[in-house]
Amino acid sequence: MADTSTDVSIDPTLAPVVARTGDERAVLEAFLDLHRGVVLRKLTGLTDADAVRRLVPSDTTVAGVVKHLTLVETNWFPWLLAPEPGEEHVFSVEASRQSWTVGPEDTVEKLTADYEAACVRSREVAARFPLDHVVPQPQLGEVNLRWIYVHLIEETARHVGHADILRELTDGATGAL
Length: 177
What we know:
Blueprint: H1 15-18, H2 24-43, H3 48-51, H4 62-76, H5 78-81, H6 93-98, H7 108-127, E1 134-137, E2 141-144, H8 145-171
Antiparallel strand pairs: 1-2
């Protein structure tokens, strides 16, 4: 992928466009990083109270979206590909449901830091393996890293849409930036 770190005129949402002639990994990483950045921008600028405000009948909140995606990042990259001692892949419906629950300790600042750290760790772990690397997955049998990337792009993008609607209902802010 082309280095855009020194060109401040490049719109951060254009990473997939910059990677348009990159190899498969560069394209997958660019799309996932795009959606990772957008979800954080949906949280940025909200008060802690606004981040946990329920605006739809479900328990879905902007804070809950970010907390859930933190578990998703951890679950699919480090815990599945290269778990540390004591870490294990979480695959129960109940654990997924609980990942949406926010408590008083889940401030905008903490949620942001936790998600950013999970994404950094995911990138580091994923970089160690080729896209064809296969691992066992409790529900699916086996998956390769390529499939994990596509799944994370889908999962993150879907929840970015939820966060976008919730943010619009909170203060009218819309869009990727």
